[in-house]
Design goal:
Radius of gyration: 22 Å
Number of helices: 7
CATH architecture of the largest domain: 3-Layer(aba) Sandwich
Shape: elongated
Largest sheet: 5 strands, parallel
Structural class: alpha/beta
Number of strands: 9
CATH topology of the largest domain: Alpha/beta knot
Number of domains: 2
Strand content: 15-25%
CATH class of the largest domain: Alpha Beta
């Protein structure tokens, strides 16, 4: 997979994607990236990329002509994404779908955003990673790609890692995990996990997933109940 990051701060990439399993996958050539400095497409001597908003208001807006030129020079095929709190919430289904793309181009805004005419002129999929505002799209783009790259073949050592976790499989939140030592600070690992009885372990994990989902994400729990009621 090739990833194109359009940004005013190319030095922010690959960021944490250059470490751990993503960094190793990058070294192996399982994915690649390029950064495109939007400022290089400014046409004046001052490399101006923003201006005051029409109608007044605080802050600056990224200029349509500059951003459009950067997109034209970069985007040719695949998914075209714009990271914005106004976008659709990122879900695991979206992550899995994007992982099937050969190329992804991500536009990262700054200031008060990007001239809307650019957004209207290109087939953007607008994505939000949550109901909050960041200083720019770059942290959101890195977060998105961390989720997507995990699904590329060969990135994770154990293929089960992406099928047996939160939001995967039945869609419930993941059950608690434990490792050695069996007793730590007076707290013991649940006995069922030490039993070697795989059927009982599976039942316990499902019970815990349901409990955690009910407590932490009642919205997901309601969706789960509705889905299984229909089934």
């Amino acid at each position: 997979m090739k990833v194109n990051f359009l940004t005013l701060y190319p030095e922010m990439f690959p960021g944490f994607l250059g470490y751990s399993v993503m960094g190793k996958a990058l070294e192996k050539g399982l994915w690649s990236y390029q950064t495109v400095d939007i400022r290089n497409f400014a046409t004046d001597n001052y490399k101006t990329v923003d201006d005051t908003p029409f109608g007044g208001g605080a802050g600056q807006v990224m200029k349509a002509d500059v951003v459009d030129a950067a997109i034209k020079a970069t985007y040719h095929t695949g998914a075209l994404l714009y990271m914005t709190p106004k976008g659709k919430p990122l879900t695991q289904d979206t992550v899995i779908r994007l992982a099937k793309e050969d190329e992804i181009t991500i536009l990262n805004g700054r200031f008060e955003g990007i001239d809307e005419r650019v957004i209207e002129s290109w087939p953007f999929e607008q994505i939000s990673i949550g109901d909050f505002v960041l200083s720019g799209g770059e942290p959101a783009a890195l977060t998105l790609m961390d989720a997507v790259l995990r699904y590329l073949p060969g990135v994770l050592g154990n293929a089960e890692s992406v099928t047996d976790e939160t939001f995967a499989g039945d869609g419930l939140l993941e059950y608690p995990q434990y490792t050695r030592p069996a007793v730590w600070n007076g707290k013991s690992v649940p006995e069922v996990l030490l039993s070697g009885h795989h059927k009982n372990i599976e039942a316990w994990r499902k019970e815990q997933s349901i409990k955690i989902t009910q407590q932490n994400r009642p919205d997901i729990w309601e969706e789960y109940k509705a889905k299984h009621k229909k089934g």
